[in-house]
Design goal:
The chain is of the alpha/beta class. The protein has a single domain, classed as TIM Barrel. 39% of the residues lie in helices and 15% in strands. The chain has helices at residues 36-48, 69-85, 105-110, 135-144, 158-161, 165-172, 190-201, 215-221, 228-245, and strands at 9-10, 19-20, 53-56, 59-60, 92-95, 98-100, 121-125, 148-152, 176-180, 207-209, 225-226. The two termini are 24 Å apart. Mean pLDDT is 96; it is low at 1-5.
């Protein structure tokens, strides 16, 4: 996308040959891709920007998206078979999940019904409006199970914007932060964008993912522009993401 006629720096130009560790490209099991055609369209769109390695992370959310390792693995197999039928061979997809810390989280964690990345990392999320009452207990339980906890899109939790010291507290507890690439634009709003850049500035971000659910979001991602300074901040984060999850 960068040419001698266009001095804008596009975020997606940094993503070539990277691995997307947070997305909703599996068909029909959460609020992401609804059909297998949706999944294929998303993958083709990612291939256009040079991304061919994915860890799919459908929601596990009690009473909303009641996914299990079995439902996720089945959807992954359906997608892999369709990729072969579509003669798309240059794609690697593994499956994990984005786990909501809710009233059922500790039960599935202790029953080994979670879906970690690389058998080591557990991607978790919480409500955007308020922290779960069992957050501290869940963090302790995750450590007890010997997983590294990754908090998805910390910049998007509105209740933390007025309590910025909580970010430092989370980091001191060993919680890793995964930035949504779309947050660097204004897709989620100016306040989220502002916090994304603040967390980058404070070097709190460990990994980056797309969190793409649909083509509208993927197309918006392709339009995000960044400064030279932001590029320099993102390169080690993207490199770390590749090194840990490729």
């Amino acid at each position: 996308m960068i040419s001698i006629f266009n001095k804008k720096k596009y975020l997606v130009d940094l993503l070539k040959d990277s691995v997307d560790i947070h997305n909703h490209i599996l068909p029909g099991i959460d609020d992401g891709a609804q059909t297998i055609n949706d999944s294929i369209d998303l993958i083709k769109g990612f291939l256009e920007i040079g991304v061919s390695n994915f860890i799919a992370t459908p929601h596990i959310m009690h009473n909303y998206h009641n996914n299990t390792p079995e439902t996720i693995s089945k959807a992954l197999q359906v997608l892999k078979e369709e990729l072969i039928k579509s003669k798309i061979y240059n794609v690697h997809i593994a499956a994990s999940a984005e786990h909501m810390i809710d009233d059922n989280f500790e039960a599935i964690l202790l029953a080994d019904k979670v879906m970690p990345m690389r058998n080591e990392y557990l991607l978790v999320e919480m409500s955007y409006l308020q922290p779960p009452i069992n957050f501290d207990e869940s963090v302790t339980a995750i450590a007890y199970k010997r997983y590294f906890q990754i908090l998805a899109h910390p910049e998007r939790y509105n209740f933390l914007h007025a309590r910025p010291k909580k970010y430092l507290e989370y980091k001191r507890r060993g919680i890793l932060f995964q930035l949504n690439a779309l947050s660097l634009g204004d897709f989620y709003g100016k306040e989220v964008q502002k916090m994304a850049y603040k967390l980058l500035e404070e070097e709190f971000i460990d990994f980056m993912g797309s969190d793409v659910h649909n083509m509208n979001q993927l197309n918006a991602l392709k339009e995000v522009t960044i400064t030279t300074k932001t590029k320099e901040q993102l390169v080690p984060i993207i490199t770390r993401t590749i090194e840990n999850f490729y």
